Amino acid sequence: MAILVLGGAGYIGSHMVDRLVNEGQEKVVVVDSLVTGHRAAVHPDAVFYQGDLADQDFMRTVFKEHADIDAVIHFAAYSLVAESMADPLKYFDNNTAGMVKLLEVMHECGVRYIVFSSTAATYGIPEEIPILETTPQKPINPYGESKLMMETIMRWADQAYGIKYVPLRYFNVAGAKPDGSIGEDHGPETHLLPIVLQVAQGKREKIAIFGDDYNTPDGTNVRDYVHPFDLADAHLLAVEYLRNGNPSTAFNLGSSTGFSNLQIVEAARKVTGHPIPLEIADRRPGDPDTLIASSEKARAILGWQPKFDNIETIIQTAWAWHSSHPDGYNDR
Ligand code: UDP
Fold this sequence. Notes:
Layout: E1 2-6, H1 11-23, E2 27-32, E3 47-50, H2 56-65, E4 69-74, H3 81-86, H4 88-109, E5 113-119, H5 142-161, E6 164-170, E7 172-173, H6 192-200, E8 207-210, E9 222-223, E10 225-226, H7 228-243, E11 251-253, E12 259-260, H8 261-272, E13 278-281, H9 296-302, H10 311-324
Parallel strand pairs: 1-2, 1-4, 2-3, 4-5, 5-6, 6-11, 7-10, 8-13
Antiparallel strand pairs: 9-12
Helix pairs in contact: 1-7, 2-4, 4-5, 6-8, 6-10, 8-10
The structure holds uridine-5'-diphosphate.
Uridine-5'-diphosphate binds at residues 81, 172, 190-192, 195, 208-210, 221, 223, 261, 284, 287.
């Protein structure tokens, strides 16, 4: 058997590929356009193709050259909320239309399983906390909408063609491989923790916290952080779940604990020993007050047991990466 990782050169995908190669159970094939991914992030023992998953001739070649691929893990998508507000069609084209093209080729080539990165952003302003898989999905930005549409498309493709799927709805992903060899490198960086750590590195003077008048204990947004190693575990379990003949279903992936933006800065001060100055700035459009997952379903059905349940440990792993790679992969 072989497994295909789409977007395997990205932040979360590269941790997945590293894990799969180290498991040593099966051949690992990676496709990445390298538009946002990094070639150096891909484990050298994976088979690598540079290309766009919407290029059907290219994808046919990949599936033909590796006819033993039965499962796809799909990380290849654009994922910035603000960018999606400014340029929604880019998201519906790359993420949503890309999914249609991918499923057509999977159907044609008889590939039956797909595990896919969905997101807490599909819930919009959640109707309940903690968020369950049954909480209504009402996205408030094109990024979340593009992912919800991908889930919907997969539901109908399952019904018509029997392609079984598991959307994994991630909450806020943070941290890196603890040895500091792979990690998060976005250009430009927009996420809270990497920016906070850039202040600790001396690359920025201070962190701007977007809003302190939310309906939360300290007024700043509360988020639920999950480590890419724990996500990799969940993807492996989800592939096994599908290969065992189970029905398509979605799972939330978070730690079930919320941290405010101010708590993240405070924890980063402890880990780095740097004062990390901050200022309060205007709210960022599209940010719900609080996002906390219930991951009971993943624990009960997949047997998922996240190991990185301490925010300082998560930040330590991110710091190991950022301090050893001050310019990231340095390939742009
Ligand atoms: N945030 C912030 N300053 C920044 C970047 C992010 O205050 O420079 C806040 C953001 O408003 C949200 C939280 O940090 O409340 C997490 O945002 P991030 O962009 O890291 O992840 P998202 O929740 O958008 O996936």
